Amino acid sequence: MVIPVWTKERTTWHDPKRGFFTLPPATTGRLVSLGELSIRDQRIFSKILQRSPDLVLINLAGMVCALSRKKLLGVDEMVDATKLEQAAMAATLPPLGEYVGSIGMNRPLSEYSREEVMTLVEVVITAYQHYISTHDDIPF
C-alpha cells in the first residue's frame, strides 16, 4: 500500500550525487520500507533508523531520505484494510460523486468552502458507516 506524505516545511538534506537539496513545503512523496531498497542502502538506512526512531524513510523528488515525522504530514501507517472495510470505502464513491457533481465537478478542492468540505466529509463518513452497519457479521 502506498502511503503518501507531504512536507510541512522547507526540507533540506544532502544527496551524494546532487549535493545539498532543498524542497519547498507541501512537496509530496511516499513512505518507503527498507525492503524496497538495495542491500547497500538497507544497511545504511537501518543504522540511521536505529539511531533515530523518529525518522521515517520517504521518497521525495525521486530520492530516498530519512526525515523526522515532525516535518511530514500523513505518516500514520494505516493497517491493511479488511475486505469489509475495502467494500465500505468503495460504497462511499457513489454518494461522494453525487455530492461533488451537485456542487461542481470542475472546481478544484481548494475552492470549496469550509461548509462544502464539511458536507463532503459527512457524506463519506455516513456512507462508510452505513455500509459497515448493514454488512457487519457481528451478531449483536
General description of the model:
The protein is α+β, with helices and mostly antiparallel strands and 140 residues long. It has two domains: 4-73, no CATH class; 83-135. It has helices at 39-51, 83-91, 93-103, 114-135, and strands spanning 4-7, 11-15, 19-23, 28-31, 55-60, 63-68, 72-73. The strands form two sheets. A five-stranded antiparallel sheet has the order 6-5-4-1-7, covered by helices on one side. A two-stranded antiparallel ribbon has the order 2-3. Helix 3 (93-103) packs antiparallel against helix 4. The longest helix is centred in the C-terminal third of the chain and has 22 residues, at 114-135. The relative contact order is 0.13. The model has no long low-confidence stretch (mean pLDDT 84).
What layout of secondary structure does this protein have?
Blueprint: E1 4-7, E2 11-15, E3 19-23, E4 28-31, H1 39-51, E5 55-60, E6 63-68, E7 72-73, H2 83-91, H3 93-103, H4 114-135
Antiparallel strand pairs: 1-4, 1-7, 2-3, 4-5, 5-6
Helix pairs in contact: 2-4, 3-4
Which keywords apply here?
140 residues, alpha+beta, five-stranded antiparallel beta sheet, 23% strand
Q: From the helix content, strand content and strand pairing, which structural class follows? A: alpha+beta
| Helix residue percentage | 25-40%
Q: Main sheet: which strands, in order across?
A: 6-5-4-1-7
Whole-number radius of gyration?
20 Å
Describe the global form. extended
Largest sheet: 5 strands, antiparallel
Low-confidence stretches: none
User: pLDDT average, as an integer?
Assistant: 84
Report the span from N to C terminus.
32 Å
The topology string of helices and strands comes to EEEEHEEEHHH
- Specify the oligomeric state: single chain
Quantity of strands, as a count? 7
Count of helical segments? 4
Strand content: 15-25%
Number of domains: 2
